[in-house]
Amino acid sequence: MLKDRIEKVKQMLNKEKTDAVLVSSVFNITYLSGFTNFSEKEREAYIFIGKDFAYIITDERYTEAIKRQVPYLTLFERGHKKSTKDLFKKHQKKIKWLGIEEDNLTVAEHKILSRHFKKIKHFDVGNLRSIKTKEEISKIEKACKIGDLAFEFILKKIENGISEKQVVEELENFIRGKGAVVSFPPIVAFGKNSSIPHHQTGDSILGPESSSGREGQIILLDFGVKYDDYCSDMTRTVFFGKPTSQQKTMYETVLQSQQKAVDFVNSATVAGKEVKAAEVDKVARDYIISRKYPAIPHSLGHGIGLEVHEHPSLSPKSKEILKEGMVFSIEPGIYLPGIGGVRIEDLLVFEKGGLRQLTHSQKKLTVI
Amino acid sequence: MLKDRIEKVKQMLNKEKTDAVLVSSVFNITYLSGFTNFSEKEREAYIFIGKDFAYIITDERYTEAIKRQVPYLTLFERGHKKSTKDLFKKHQKKIKWLGIEEDNLTVAEHKILSRHFKKIKHFDVGNLRSIKTKEEISKIEKACKIGDLAFEFILKKIENGISEKQVVEELENFIRGKGAVVSFPPIVAFGKNSSIPHHQTGDSILGPESSSGREGQIILLDFGVKYDDYCSDMTRTVFFGKPTSQQKTMYETVLQSQQKAVDFVNSATVAGKEVKAAEVDKVARDYIISRKYPAIPHSLGHGIGLEVHEHPSLSPKSKEILKEGMVFSIEPGIYLPGIGGVRIEDLLVFEKGGLRQLTHSQKKLTVI
What we know:
The structure is a homodimer. The first copy, chain A, has helices spanning 2-15, 26-33, 63-69, 84-91, 107-116, 134-157, 164-177, 245-270, 277-290; strands at residues 20-23, 46-50, 53-58, 74-77, 97-100, 119-122, 181-182, 187-190, 217-223, 225-227, 230-231, 234-240, 301-303, 310-314, 327-330, 333-336, 340-343, 346-351, 354-357. Chain A is α+β, with helices and mostly antiparallel strands. The first copy, chain A, folds into two domains: 2-128, Creatinase/prolidase N-terminal domain (Creatine Amidinohydrolase, Chain A, domain 1, 3-Layer(aba) Sandwich); 134-357, Creatinase/methionine aminopeptidase superfamily (Creatine Amidinohydrolase). In chain A, a hairpin with a 2-residue loop joins strand 2 and strand 3 (53-58). Chain A is elongated, with a radius of gyration of 23 Å. At the A-B interface, helix 5 of A face helix 5 of B. Chains A, B: Keywords: Hydrolase, Metal-binding.
């Protein structure tokens, strides 16, 4: 099955009139090789695929493991005896156009390549990852399940006097206890902090925010789980104390906006129509604006898998079409500076009949 | 003091006839701002320095913290209202030559820059980091101290039947217990595995290697600590069971080679001579070859600080000169494929009188 992925790259090369591609991003390398031990921080490997070859380039540290686990890729061991340049020299004559990952390859690496290859262009291997297999979807579901349990757990832990950082710590410990890790640093925002979509979790303390002490305080929780290399992502907004009518209306508007996006996809699917990612974004976005709230300052959603953010993008500028097997978030939000924000995010998979939700934490307005 | 670092960048710009530099590597950003919260995996900030400006470019997540902690840099908040392009447009006329970090900036980022700046070249901000302040040296010493304690601890834990991975786990837990983390994934290599300089720690079990069960088994431990953002790094090779005479000779040769490199630096310093990093490498390297062993398949040493590997490089091709305040490793090794390897690594700081060792774990041939 992993071997099929290499074939798909070759088909893509053919389609895009590119003679070979040098894959450098660690997640694309993981996707094509199934090998998960390479560092995310340092460049430890490349995959180099052409019409009649498919190499994995790495060093002696990984030789044994690669030979055992990735037999369908030809191992090129670089080291003090052989350099990657030797490999490029061997193939450069056959390669007119070389594909690279422009958003990953460094300028220094590009310089070296340009000594061997005259024509270099961007080649988006990551596109292949947007459509998930059943096995991949099931891994994402497992991560979502742990996320749901973590949400259930954290609701019981949240109490007067707790800080944002403490909530994060509790979440991280719970998730670790399930044999998983967080898929990104959790965002926990209390009160006005929630008006910053990507608030940096800090030392803010939960407690009555207004002088009367009777108003509800927003608690925005955005976190995900990484289990068996696959990620989940979910946002819930709950209230500490009774929400004001303003807060309630914000909450209901965001929830409605999300529902409208989901309904749109499902109706279109039933009608046999193609669904553009940008259209889904527009449905949710327009609804929030129609209720006199500011426009969502981020995309409506993003694909997820080996990485928290991958194809497809559900944003106004997206050119992508939703396809069966895509897994993505739908996460509208309203953010009022100085007041607070509400975001609700779920993961969904696009299937034959329409969308199926993978995160199952409850969304009824919750007061702690 | 951090402000002085910005001044040094400006002096460097002047010297290298570069009008501005866009710093993108997270460790250089940390070095120049003192701000340690940016992700190592995602691009969350840049520092943009010219003759009469010094910006830190980041998003709303970090606005508050940056304003509070880094007042001497002008905050440019990029987001859905303002893009980095606006900032480039404002300054592009004054900038003929823009410096970038070629080994960090991506091809996609370079493309955007090239729309604003005609002449772009490599600018090695990381060079500034090679000479450490007293405060930085003291932080590295603290990391070394924890590393020494971890080595003492692990010697007691190593026993028949333990796996390489278990040793790593014990090391990591011990270091975490000291409020620190490992500075890189520890390398633990048993027996023949030690002949691979950067062996990938695996499931190999400690136990009598030869059929007679009377020969010593090599245990190579290469690990470091990160404490208060600064790293340590150390390698020790010990024996499980009585070493063979071949193993003993290898061990003594490596130890001698390290000592000869240290002596060389110290003698030259006393004589008031400048010491080239490449010469130090040569002393250790030549000694090992003179004893009829294969050449060291890696550099003799590397600078260390915020990162495990930074300037200076002690390698045959290095053009660097040792200067007061530099902290680096000296780590000769002998690796015999199919037999095993020995490496001994210490961190040293180059001071007025010569080298002072920062790692203090014992190096007498140790049998467990």
